[in-house]
Amino acid sequence: MEKHIKLVAILNIVYRCVTLIIAILLFILSAVFGRIMDFLERQGEFHPDEVPRELLDIVPIVLVVIGAMMVVVSIVAIIGAIGVMKRQEWGRIVLIVVSFFNLIRAPLGTVLGVYSLWVLLNDEIVRIFNPLKATQSTVTTT
Fold first, then answer.
1. Are the beta carbons of 36 and 63 closer than 8 angstroms?
2. The model's pTM
3. N or C: which end of the chain has fewer CB within 10 A?
4. What would the pLDDT profile of 4-30 be if each residue is shown by its tens digit?
5. Pair 95, 88: CB distance under 8 Å
6. 129-139 core/surface letters (b: 16 or more CB in 10 A; e: else)
7. Residue boundaries of the structural domains of the chain
């Protein structure tokens, strides 16, 4: 199971680094959105009458909010994955929570979320991360 622990941590770090890159692209897109729309209008590909101006005005804001949420969750997940690598119980808990969020990000997030939950909720892994709690439950049951 040691290999699974390390693999879960590495896969979560890689996945979240890719997510950070996507978030940066969203920030860039939000900054140049107006210029893109102007360019499309000049090319005849877009007519301002087709979409309400209010809707176009909120697109950059929505992109920034989505990007910010992606950054926050990614940083938390990377910190949790580092905690898992160091066999910290808090890191395991953080990655379990993040893995539930990953489940809705099909297809890669779903696969990573299922695998992470399978590893991190395994009884043997719980004993590795919290040997004192495992010892107490053994003493209580005997």
1. no
2. 0.83
3. C
4. 999 999 999 999 999 999 999 999 999
5. no
6. bbeeeeeeeee
7. 2-141
